[in-house]
């Protein structure tokens, strides 16, 4: 099982966010990628797009399924990880670090998110289903 | 691996290169008469003329026939064996439908023929319309939509028109997590926002879960009944009442209608709109590029908004009526895909009311036979009574490193089409089996024996290896598309 960094906060839909001042860096967790299998396509929003907390901001497609990506916090997209959109399979390497999805300018404070410990417990429960 | 040896043979299957590579300059399949008019140079007529000849394959007639026939032997089809793709209802299509639909009197009809000449065709459409009303217990039907998803879109346009006629715009469509995947897609295409409702432990929608998200912005709830777990939504009447109290509508996806013909009518439990997938329930051919057909049935509330032209019977004469002030207009050129109506009409008329009921009863019995045969080896995540399909997963196989994908791939080596995998999404690594009513017990046993042998021998890796094309790299296939032929020179 992967290690989930303590400086990230996690959603039930398996996104993470790292807050640096007024910026939130958003990605998806190693658990999500393990569940998805081989990722073949990533659809991310343009810079400048505005999202509410919990709103779908894009999709990730694997050979198994297509899943929505949900914004952990309200904000405007400042930057998209364009290296990843051209090689989406790379997301499996370092999903909690250099392979983030979008950077957003925060328009709210993250609420109802999980700590690394809480998330580790949450996915252990999910895996038993 | 005894069953594998017993049930499959050795075969020589011919390789066939792209026709560009077997092309021989000058080879033709036609014999045109000598030109008996003056030859005209294209350049003297057209401003722009291509200078280089298109590099199309040149082959004789038998070469063309063999090209496609050889490739057809690499394929799998319902005419070859069981095709238990859950949710897809891959039933056998009776040849009688084809025979009648292809007869000259019917297949050569032209939509511009005068209405007086077309009374027989209109009668087929009229009778199909009436039959679909009878099956659903709903008062309005349109045959126009060209496919199931188009039917969904049309249904949602009617929902919008209904709310607009009340002077409001509602933006939310609720979908259950056991709804068909097309439901949220159709709702998004129709301009709605989607809110998903999680079903309970017993696999159905609970009134409390609906109450938590139901408000004055909800235009409709879309769900499938029986749902994609094969479970009948026992609270559907309460759900319909709750929606109607807010003047929201109930959209039932008719994809699983094959389970309830003559047993339950959506109109009786409060549905406002349903689409029919004629290829599933009424045995018109599946896909292959179409044409499809996805008629819709609606409640009284939505009748004023149905597409035009509509069929009406004036005395003995059937006429087409365009005059309907609140209609959403046309959704398809002419009258829809008529060839599919003939096939569905044949199927319904050949079986009759009792026969249609027997279709659903046998679909339910067959699926429950599969369930009873597999329940001791596969885990059933939602253990509730099921109708026409059954959903398992690979939980019992986790310790032996056998997963859903591997089981599906290995079934190919047994010469069978695998079941649906990884759907519905609410079940992790789902294995979804729908035999349909057209499979015999011996054919279902073949599938069960194969699956049991696969489970007994988890160590086999890298299937399929016994078919013409061995395991393909799905990831690479999705990332590196080759959609055109590249000449080497």
Strand and helix layout:
The complex is a heterodimer of chains A (129) and B (489).
Chain A: E1 9-10, E2 15-20, E3 23-28, H1 30-36, E4 39-43, E5 50-51, E6 56-62, E7 66-70, E8 75-80, H2 82-86, E9 102-106, H3 116-127
Chain B: H1 2-7, H2 19-22, H3 61-72, H4 95-101, H5 104-107, H6 119-136, E1 140-142, H7 148-165, E2 172-176, H8 182-189, E3 193-197, H9 207-213, E4 218-224, H10 236-245, E5 249-253, E6 273-275, H11 278-281, E7 296-298, E8 310-314, E9 317-321, H12 338-374, E10 390-393, H13 404-413, E11 420-421, E12 430-433, H14 441-456, H15 474-479
Parallel strand pairs in B: 2-3, 2-4, 4-5, 5-6
Antiparallel strand pairs in B: 1-7, 6-7, 8-9, 10-12, 11-12
Helix pairs in contact in B: 4-12, 6-12, 7-8, 12-14
Report on this model:
The complex is a heterodimer of chains A (129) and B (489). Chain A has 129 residues and is an alpha+beta fold. Chain A is 19% helix and 34% strand. Chain A is built from 3 helices and 9 strands. In chain A, the strands form 2 sheets. Chain A has a 6-stranded antiparallel sheet with strand order 1-2-3-9-8-5. Chain A has a 3-stranded antiparallel sheet with strand order 4-6-7. In chain A, a hairpin with a 3-residue loop joins β6 and β7. The radius of gyration of chain A is 14 Å and the shape is globular. Chain B has 489 residues and is of the alpha/beta class. Chain B has 2 domains: 255 residues, Aspartate Aminotransferase, domain 2 (3-Layer(aba) Sandwich); 123 residues, Aspartate Aminotransferase, domain 1, CATH 3.90.1150. Chain B is 34% helix and 10% strand. Chain B has 15 helices and 12 strands. In chain B, strands 1-7-6-5-4-2-3 form a 7-stranded mixed sheet, with helices on both faces. Chain B has a 3-stranded antiparallel sheet with strand order 10-12-11, with helices on one face. A two-stranded antiparallel sheet of chain B has the order 8-9. In chain B, a hairpin with a 2-residue loop joins β8 and β9. The longest helix of chain B is centred in the last third of the chain and has 37 residues. Chain B is globular and about 75 Å long. The mean pLDDT of chain B is 94. Chains A and B meet through loops of A and α15 of B.
